[in-house]
Design brief:
Blueprint (H helix, E strand, L loop, with lengths): L1 H29 L7 H34 L6 E8 L5 E9 L2 E5 L7 E6 L4 E4 L7 E6 L28 E6 L2 H16 L1 H8 L12 H14 L12 H8 L9 H8 L5 H11 L2 H8 L15 E3 L14 E2 L3 H11 L18 E5 H4 L8 H8 L3 H13 L11 E3 L6 E8 L4 E11 L4 E8 L4 E13 L3 E7 L2 E5 L4 E5 L3 E5 L6 E13 L4 E8 L12 E8 L2 E9 L4 E5 L5 E5 L3 H5 L4 E4 L9 H4 L1 H8 L3 H25 L8 E3 L6 E3 L12 E7 L2 E6 L17 H6 L31
Parallel strand pairs: 10-11
Antiparallel strand pairs: 1-2, 1-7, 2-3, 3-4, 5-6, 6-7, 8-26, 9-20, 12-13, 12-26, 13-14, 14-15, 15-16, 15-17, 16-19, 17-18, 18-20, 19-20, 20-21, 21-22, 22-23, 23-24, 24-25, 27-28, 29-30
């Protein structure tokens, strides 16, 4: 019993000694005893502040180090020309510059035309087998996330124009196997040893001897890019002040809220300071320090407000809605006008009376083709190229049955005039946007652009109005081409327009018809369509009005024929089976379920938008006040002439707002065109603001476009004219008047 008592006593002494030693070590580790003085508590606070200061400086240094490697032209691991495959499976030669942690891609070797920046921290590299010459490898994100930085090395928001590039991978080809393997080794080095490369290559970071891990460096850089995601048009400059203001604001100055309170209340009691310091040392605050910087809350879309169109005039099928009986008073005005016309005279400045005007602009008139844009949405999803062509032709015919009652022409647009509208697709929950601008007055040229990226199509073109005068009749020729593109297929359908023929100007009943040959051609698939709009014969019956015939072809082989009337039924006959069926018929049900057009809210329209610009003329015409309409029309036209004289005096050239002329092809292109295929994982919604059609995305990728090649006219097109339909040169009307070839632009928009 005594022996057991001694053992217990001995164990108790050893335990007390161990506990005492543990407490002593704990106190030594914490730097204070329970009875430590106030000065020792302040020492701990100052030590914590020093640690946090070093922590913040280290994060700043790591970020500046990486940004300096990007902006310093001397810090380059490797640079050479490489071929990169785009989403359309075509290859483009681009200048690639490899730096620690990033791959910069340029269009030229001078590094002036930035295409995109690839963040290598989350990428993998693998060799890719290929039948073509050279060495092919793939740079990709294992989880199929975006590999692109949101801005360029100089703050560029939009990449240089080239082919569309994938968002989650790049397929790259080098000229030889040795070059390709050298690039793979260099990329692996840039991926795994980026911190070492930066410390050895960068000159600005030589004075720092603190090491930086690769992971933390890339996390900081990626967080900076995410924090400065593009929600505005402000320039992004990668300088020291911007880094401190954007990247080290709040998150880097204080590890959490309690740290901020510590610095603000450093004069308070020691107990309060210690309590808040203990809160700041929790795991939660440390996780906040080392996490990515989350982007700021997304602001609401700043888009144009559109309202549903309240009224529209469709017209009826047949000749009755295309004729106009002119009163004696109005006939005298026409006679007075025609007495001034002489063979060979330039009639581009002839002012027409307002009684034949349709109360809307020609830019508005061109939008009539898109009330059935859902046919194009269906065509974009069609896998068979022949069926795609049929849907395109069906859509083309759907744009003609909407016509005003009588013989009316829209306003000639003022230079710089614009028009915007859209159609909502209920089935696909998408929008088709229409943008048009008058880019030239003499000669009168109207440019337009239509886009629905979600449904996979866009359309662009320009129309130059010309005229031919025959005495008792005239023809308004719309010279130009429209180019329909299916974005996910890379197919272009190039189409022309018929001409408008007006007869009965001096005597008889004034009647409007469409004539000429139209071509719709897809060079990629080889499918084409030829449509012939026929004028009524001199002794023809009412059934011969508005006739149309056509052929659907693959190369030279005719697959089907079309017959009917362009404002009513059109039948298609298959050449192999000889079966005939209704191809297109604008029945009341079709008209009822067509897409509804929405126009810009009047309060948001600019001074040069069609509806606001012509509102007084339109109001007078609707009130049947021809005197007031003529006066208001004269005010607008005279203001345009005065503006032209002022530009000539100042030796200034007109600059278009939304379109630009390609000097090589002579084609007008929409400045803000986006022809990328729709990405459901990244693209959210398409919208428009101030004439700029944009897409809201989850993650920024390089905004690139496919340059358009000049369309080569086919033999059939060369027979009629370059890109438009025109009457035969030897045509004569029933009056037997001579054919006088003149420019009559004011009659040019009859169709």
């Amino acid at each position: 019993f005594e022996r057991g008592k001694e053992d217990i006593s001995q164990n108790k002494d050893e335990s007390s000694l161990a506990m005492s030693k543990s407490k002593s070590e704990s106190k030594l580790y914490n730097g204070s005893e329970k009875d430590s003085s106030t000065s020792s508590k302040l020492t701990k606070k100052e030590s914590l502040k020093v640690q946090k200061k070093n922590y913040r400086e280290e994060k700043k240094r790591a970020t500046k180090e990486l940004l300096s490697t990007i902006t310093d032209p001397s810090v380059i691991v490797m640079a050479d020309w490489l071929k990169i495959r785009g989403t359309l499976k075509s290859w483009t030669k681009l200048w690639c510059v490899l730096k620690p942690g990033v791959l910069l891609i340029y269009k030229t070797q001078k590094n002036g035309q930035w295409v995109g920046t690839v963040l290598l921290n989350a990428c993998e590299i693998i060799e890719r087998p290929s039948k073509k010459d050279g060495f092919c490898f793939k740079l990709f994100h294992p989880l199929e996330q975006s590999i692109w930085a949101v801005k360029g090395p100089k703050g560029e928001a939009v990449g240089s124009i080239t082919q569309p590039l994938p968002s989650s991978y790049l397929i790259i080809r080098a000229t030889s196997e040795s070059d390709g393997r050298c690039w793979m080794d260099a990329l692996e080095l840039a991926l795994k040893c980026s911190s070492l490369l930066k410390r050895t290559m960068i000159r600005e970071g030589k004075e720092h001897d603190l090491s930086v891990s690769s992971d933390s460096t890339h996390v900081t850089f990626y967080g900076l890019l995410r924090a400065n995601n593009l929600h505005s048009g402000d320039n992004f400059q990668l300088n020291d002040s911007e880094i401190e203001r954007q990247h080290f604001k709040d998150q880097d100055m204080y590890s959490d809220k309690s740290d901020k309170e510590n610095d603000q209340e450093h004069d308070e009691s020691d107990n309060e300071v210690m309590g808040k310091s203990e809160e700041s040392d929790t795991d939660t605050s440390e996780r906040q320090d080392d996490s990515y910087i989350e982007p700021e809350p997304v602001e609401p879309l700043k888009e144009t407000t559109y309202t549903e169109q309240s009224h529209e005039e469709l017209g009826e099928a047949g000749e009755a809605s295309q004729t106009e009986t002119v009163s004696e008073e109005n006939k005298s005005l026409i006679w007075t006008l025609l007495k001034q016309v002489r063979p060979g005279m330039d009639l581009s400045k002839v002012v027409l009376p307002t009684f034949i005007l349709e109360p809307r602009s020609f830019l508005d008139k061109l939008s009539d083709y898109y009330y059935h844009a859902d046919f194009l949405s269906e065509a974009a999803l069609e896998e068979n190229p022949y069926f795609r062509l049929k849907k395109v032709v069906k859509w083309y015919l759907s744009g003609f049955y909407k016509k005003p009652k009588g013989l009316k022409k829209p306003y000639n647009p003022i230079l710089g005039e614009t028009f915007r509208c859209l159609w909502i697709h209920p089935r696909t929950n998408s929008k088709t946007f229409y943008i048009a601008e008058q880019v030239s007055h003499h000669p009168p040229i109207s440019a337009f652009y239509v886009s629905n990226r979600k449904d996979g199509f866009c359309l662009s073109g320009s129309i130059l109005a010309k005229s031919k005068f025959y005495g008792n009749s005239l023809s308004a020729i719309l010279e130009g081409e429209a180019r329909l593109t299916f974005l996910n297929r890379g197919e272009d359908y190039v189409m022309t327009m018929p001409y408008a023929h007006c007869k009965g100007i001096l005597y008889g009943t004034m009647t409007l018809e469409l004539g000429g040959t139209v071509n719709i051609t897809c060079q990629k698939t080889g499918y084409s369509a030829i449509l012939e709009f026929k004028l009524k014969p001199f002794l023809g019956s009412s059934d011969c009005v508005n006739q149309i015939s056509g052929k659907l072809k693959l190369g030279k082989e005719v697959l089907a024929t079309l017959e009917g009337h362009w404002d009513s039924e059109v039948f298609i006959t298959d050449k192999k089976t000889d079966n005939s069926e209704v191809f297109w018929n604008p029945t009341p049900d079709i008209k009822q379920w067509r897409l509804i057009r929405h126009t810009v809210k009047s309060e948001e329209q600019g001074d040069f938008e069609s509806e606001k610009l012509w509102q007084r003329v339109t109001r007078a015409i609707n009130a049947k006040d021809q005197t007031e309409a003529t006066q208001e029309k004269y005010i607008l036209e005279e203001a345009q002439r005065q503006a032209a004289r002022d530009r000539k005096t100042k030796n200034e050239e007109w600059s278009c707002k939304l379109f630009e002329l390609d000097p090589l092809t002579g084609e007008w292109h929409y400045k803000f065109a986006d022809t990328r295929p729709w990405d459901p994982l990244n693209d959210m919604i398409q919208f428009e603001k101030d004439g700029v059609i944009q897409t809201k995305v989850k993650h920024r990728t390089p905004m690139v476009n496919v340059p358009k090649m000049k369309h080569k006219p086919t033999r059939q097109q060369k027979k009629v004219a370059k890109g438009y339909s025109s009457p035969e040169p030897d045509i004569q009307d029933s009056s037997g008047s001579e054919d006088v070839d003149v420019d009559l632009s004011d009659y040019s928009e009859y169709c």
